[in-house]
Amino acid sequence: LGCTGPRAIGFTKETRIQRLHQLLSFEARREQAAIARQCVLYREPRTERLIGQVLTGLIPDGPAHGGMPKVLLVRDTSLNAFSFPDGAIYIHTGLLARLEHESELALLLAHEITHITRQHALQAAMLERREGAGGPFDGRELSDSLSWFHDTAPALGDPVPLNAVRDLRRTLEHEADRMGLDMLIKSNYDPYEALEIFEHLKTGADTEETAERAARLSDQLASAALDAPARPRDPIAFSQRLHPLLTAQVELEIQRGEWESALRHARRLLNDDPENARGHYLLGEWYRQRAEPGDEDLSLRHYDRAVGSDPLLP
User: Fold this and answer.
1) Which residue intervals of the chain are DSSP H helices?
2) Longest pairwise C-alpha distance within the chain
3) Which pLDDT value is given to residue 132?
4) Coil, strand, or helix at residue 72?
């Protein structure tokens, strides 16, 4: 073959897929390196233990292929989550802070696990082809759900119409929703409670598509035969385990001037624990930095509550 030149080498479907796997692996490493450079990852033991326990509940024996997915939290205010073919799942703290039930977190993770285990990135790459494209982040915000997942690495074959690409993306998302819900039910989570996640997502982009996904899953749930009632889970206990994350999120949102979400999360801290000194301090900061008429008195009032709850709080 070396004498006749490379044109004489024939590539089988298997070798093409193997090559595509290599390209996807390279893209995944490059993307994750870009995230490490451009984003701040949030690390907190209680939150990480919570996510680890939910993952173990969803796949107690581990995935059929490869190791347990690894979840990383990106300190950001957007409502976003995405996954890589190598098992890395990224969740923005803005989305995690919105969740009110453990079952919502379970559905989010089950959706991303399906993307990984069903090799959706490979399916998309086999269809798509990008010629002369720049890096995955060119002209795009990091909060764009890393759409490189769907148009990554040049696929082998002829370019396909944009409509076919969109149809495949929609099909893969539907499959991740459907199989994620099945995984949730088998893990004895409350599926009706889990679907409340779409109410939070409706406040972000693609409201119409989010409503359509919620309606489709509701129809699937209506026709499903639930073998046993879901295990009851305490939403207050779940929320309290998120208190460190909520505290960090309020600080970030105040810093960015996102007053509505900062107020929502500060009040959630105090609803769970009315004597939460840091919650009162943050609410005092919220009023002080917003600085509208009357905010100074409200700020001082919450500072006093913070001192009264914990005089040793720095």
Assistant:
1) 13-38, 45-58, 93-96, 102-117, 120-127, 162-186, 191-194, 197-201, 207-222, 235-241, 243-255, 259-272, 277-290, 295-309
2) 86
3) 35
4) strand
Whether the CA torsion 56, 62, 64, 66 is positive or negative: it is: positive
Residue 9 CB partners (closer than 8 Å, separation 6+)? 1
Give the type of residue at 93: T
230: Cβ–Cβ under 8 A, 6 or more apart, which residues? 103, 188, 189, 190, 191, 193
Q: 286 is written with which tokens?
A: 């919220």
- The CA-to-CA distance between both ends of the chain, in Å, stands at 73
**Dist. CA 155–CA 31, nearest whole Å:** 18
Question: What does the pLDDT look like over 176-186, one tens digit per residue?
Answer: 999 999 999 99
Q: What is the mean pLDDT of residues 166-190?
A: 90
Asked if residue 103 lies in contact with residue 120, where contact means CB atoms within 8 angstroms, the answer is no
Structure tokens at 148: 């490189």
0.70 exceeded by pTM:
yes
The count of other CB atoms within 10 Å of the CB of residue 75 is 17
Nearest to 107 by CA among 52, 58, 148, 154: 58
DSSP secondary structure, 114-170, as one string: HHHHTTHHHHHHHH---SS---TTTT--TTSTTGGGTS-SPPSS----HHHHHHHHH
Structural contact between residues 31 and 25, judged by C-beta atoms closer than 8 angstroms: no
Residue of 219, 171, 172, 167 whose CA lies nearest to 195 = 219
Say whether 205 sits in a helix, a strand or coil. Answer: coil
Radius of gyration, CA atoms only, the chain: 23
Structure tokens at 223: 């026709």
Residue 121 · residue 103 · CB < 8 Å: no
Specify the amino acid at residue 296: E
